[in-house]
Amino acid sequence: MIRVFIDGSSGTTGLQIRERLSLREDIELITVPFEQRHDPSVRKDAMCKADIAFLCLPDDAAREAAGFVSEDDVILIDTSTAHRTDPAWTYGLAEMAGQRELIRKSRRIANPGCHATGFITLVQPLIAAGILKKDAQLDCFSLTGYSGGGKKMIAEYEAADRSPLLKGPRMYALPQKHKHLKEMKQICGLAYEPVFCPVVADFFSGMETVITLHGGQVNGSIEDIKNCYKALYTTPLIHFSGQADENGFLSAAACSGRDDLEISVYGNEDRITLVSRFDNLGKGACGAAIQNMNIVTGLAEDTGLVWKG
Predict the structure, then answer these.
(1) Rounded CA gap, 211 and 143, in Å?
(2) CB of 278 within 8 A of CB of 294?
(3) 154-186 burial: b if 16+ Cβ within 10 Å, else e
(4) In this structure, are 261 and 139 located in the same domain?
(5) Do 96 and 143 reside in the same domain of the chain?
(6) Number of domains observed in the structure of the chain
């Protein structure tokens, strides 16, 4: 039996993890009284009783909670932004070459950001293969369902008297200072942060991250890009699809409710479109966190997860 404590179990990510793990017979969930959920001593005590603790907290609170216990006490999986570029923490994207074994041996795992997952799964393999240069100046837009904004945004979108502006997709992080940019650059080994345009739209969950390339940016062909992805992404949780379109369209909600991620490539030798589709609450958050827990505890990494059969 794996003993698990979720610090911050009332937020969107924490609730999702708790609901998923409560269905598993191999998990014992350690809880604290609701009125004591902010008490550091109570949280620390609960954490010390666990084998795994998920930190589903704002960044500063996650840093504080990480200091409650030593590495000998408990394995931490942080779903916040706080430790994603910290060299003392292992970046929790198992499908990167060599990363699965690092996660397996780690006691401090930083869960990737949702937009960052889409970007890194597309770019990092091409950088590693020499198909893209490290000094490539990239453009990316990423569509997400409104659940990515947490409880406040969910309530805003689902309110009876909501603003009519919510009917249309809305760009945000306009000053180019989105919190995922740092990990996008560092994990991919890029010299520059991409021009990044995140967009939230009127659907609950799902994500579609898109990178556009001109042929002159590519050291190779469009087939080289496809073959790079095919060789790397061979598990059910990240897979390459050559035919991902739906009658000429590509929906950002196609993977909603699942924990897998689908890579596809479109265009020609002059203009190429790279697409990563997944659920912002699945592979973009809770599914990835549970996958990391499975890996570090020696279970099959897709235990309790849902993917396209």
Answers:
(1) 12
(2) no
(3) beebeeeeeeeebeeeeeeeeeeebebbbbbbb
(4) yes
(5) no
(6) 2
Question: Comparing C-alpha atoms, which of 282, 297, 286, 236 is closest to residue 103?
Answer: 297
95 and 127 in a single domain? The answer is no
Q: Which domain holds residue 105?
A: 2-112+284-296
Tell me: do 55 and 184 sit in the same domain: no
**In 3D, which of 26, 71, 67 has the Cα closest to residue 44?**
67
Tens of pLDDT, residue by residue, the chain (309 residues): 999 999 998 889 999 999 999 999 999 999 998 888 888 899 999 999 999 999 999 999 999 999 999 888 899 999 999 999 999 999 999 999 999 999 999 999 999 999 999 999 999 999 999 999 999 999 999 999 999 999 999 999 999 999 999 999 999 999 999 999 999 999 999 999 999 999 999 999 999 999 999 999 999 999 999 999 999 999 899 999 977 678 889 999 999 999 999 999 999 999 999 999 999 999 999 999 999 999 999 999 999 999 886
Those residues whose C-beta lies under 8 Å from the C-beta of residue 190, and which sit 6 or more positions away, are: 123, 127, 134, 135, 136, 138, 184
Residues annotated as catalytic (active site), given as ranges:
114
Q: Looking at the structure, do residues 265 and 130 belong to the same domain, yes or no? A: yes
CB 75 within 8 A of CB 54: no
Q: Is residue 23 part of a domain?
A: yes
Residue 99 lies in a domain: yes
Residues 158 and 30 in one domain: no
